[in-house]
Amino acid sequence: MQLEKIALSKKYAAAFLNLFMNQLNDEDIKKFETAETFLKKNRRNIFFLRFPSIDASLKQKVLNLIFEKFQINPILFKLTDLLKSKKRLFLLRETIKQICIIYKRRKNIIDFNISSSHQLNEHQKKVIQEFLEHNTKKNITSSYKINPNLIAGIRLQSNELLWEYSIQKKLRLLNKELTN
After folding, report:
1. Per DSSP, what are the bridge partners of residue 112?
2. pTM here?
3. What is the 3-state secondary structure (H, E, C) of the chain?
4. Domain segments of the chain: what residues?
5. What's the pLDDT tens digit per position in 56-95?
6. Distance (Å, whole) CA 136 – CA 106
7. Class for domain 109-179, per CATH?
8. d(Cα 46, Cα 62) in Å, to the nearest integer?
């Protein structure tokens, strides 16, 4: 069932983007991602959206509040209206997730989480950005955090790629070599 749900959500997402891609921007997608994370974290609290016995106007009020909170592009209401009319509102979170994935694929964007053992300055961030763009041939969006466990190093990670250069990695490799 989960695979069928994902496959159906992908179809809705692709159709939505075929119609409205030119009315969305990267900032809209970031807001979609934030809303999708909220829906995922609160899936038990919004489970009632699945019940046909719950009044449609109450469901709409909840969606309006969520969309307002995250300043979601109103174009997404077209999707929620369609999902409601087909009694598939339970696909909303997964469809929003798939919209973000497909949008980024079509725009040649890849997200990286960059962890370093220390605070990076703007020049270092620019060098990393250029390295990632050169090696992936994609547009890069990145978020940065400090991870003291890296021990004088850096870790660049996306959903598909990982680059790490750190003493921690060298210690892991040495340990693996010694234990084999």
Report:
1. 142
2. 0.78
3. CHHHHHHHHHHHHHHHHHHHHHHCCHHHHHHHHHHHHHHHHCCCCCHHHHCCCCCHHHHHHHHHHHHHHCCCCCCHHHHHHHHHHCCCHHHHHHHHHHHHHHHHHHCCEEEEEEEECCCCCHHHHHHHHHHHHHHHCCEEEEEEEECHHHCCCEEEECCCCEEEECHHHHHHHHHHHHHC
4. 2-106, 109-179
5. 788 888 888 989 999 999 999 999 999 988 988 889 999 9
6. 15
7. alpha beta
8. 9
